Fold this protein.
Amino acid sequence: MNKKILIFDSSTIITLAMNGLLGILPQLKKNFKGSFVITPYVKEEIINQPLETKRFEFEALSIEKLIEDGIFDIMDAPELDKETSRIKLLVNSSFKAHGEKLKIFHDGEASCLALAKLLYGNEILLASDERTARLVIENLENLRKLFEYKLHTVVDLKYLKGIPRNLKIIRSSELCMLAYKKGFIDLPADHSKVIEAILYALKFKGCSISSEEIKKAKKIFERKL
Amino acid sequence: MNLREELHDYKNILAILRKAKNAFNHRDVFMLRDLSNRTIHSASIYQDADSISIAVVLYALSKIIGRHDYVFYRDWKLFYKVVNFSFDKSILAIENDDLTSFREGIMNIRKAEHKLSGNLKKYIEEVFVEASINKASRLYEHGLSMEKTAEMLGITLFELAQYAGKTGIPDMSFNKTLPIEKRFHNTIKFFED
């Protein structure tokens, strides 16, 4: 039987943590018939590394609590390391500038794509606030154009095979929009004002959402809830 | 180790360091910042620690000389001397194909604050941390992932996310993929029974 699995990249959890919005996750999980999962690589980035610095210790501990409470499952599939290395190698050898391969991916995001691939057959969403991972899945050509624009040089792209290209991606923005729709966020303003406030807060803490998208999101909430 | 084999585009780096020394001595903040940005292009492609270090050092120096009041601190002259000496050391090292001395010169600028005391030391330390985060944000802007960038600059993802969020990166047209209405619809559908 197909299971619903929401895989979280570090970026989405970090954005929520830095805005004090981690609390929406237990509420969203409560009536959800599926799992929220992270990989051991993501755990390393969002808990183990920040625990070494005082500045983000609180956020790291708040995230760790969600694991302790069973909100996140850490999924360490037997083949995960191998598939993570394969995807990282694949992505990091796809773009070339001046004959050099552009190494754009690290373990965390590669492990999320690897896990999505290993869980093929289930109903999967990836939560990622990170622009590059999203472009790798949804629009490689745009990523190539971005490199050319920023590097002022020709960038070659070798099309990627073996990447879960049909994977659907959401961000902390859509999770918060849903949480607001369900009444899990209560703020004293009209719907579109609250949505604008939440989405800009997320944007300023790293969520890759444009101002144009925030305008459109406001319109959704102006129409109806 | 042979510098000309190890250092990508060493002629360009030599030109950048010469201009940077001149800009530092003439308090040309914009030139230093521009040179740092140029080095970041190279760092995005080759991802070598040398280009990254130079980009961080030049950006930090641009911030430091942008604050005229620090000239009045007791240790300023010492800092100024260390920076000039280190630039000369790295420039000469490139000319002499000496990789070890080149790296020592750049490292001496990064570690110049160790020779200082009081508020100037504290300020310069902070500027170098901020410079690393700024350059990480620039690499992210160039298309590298946040995680890759944080790893290269030795900063946490939290620091990078906070900084990148204040830039115009998400508003770039290349980032457009799926309409938000569709993404929200996918989210609602996924959470339905």
About this structure: Chain B has a mean pLDDT of 90. The CA atoms of residues 44 and 144 of chain B lie 8 Å apart.
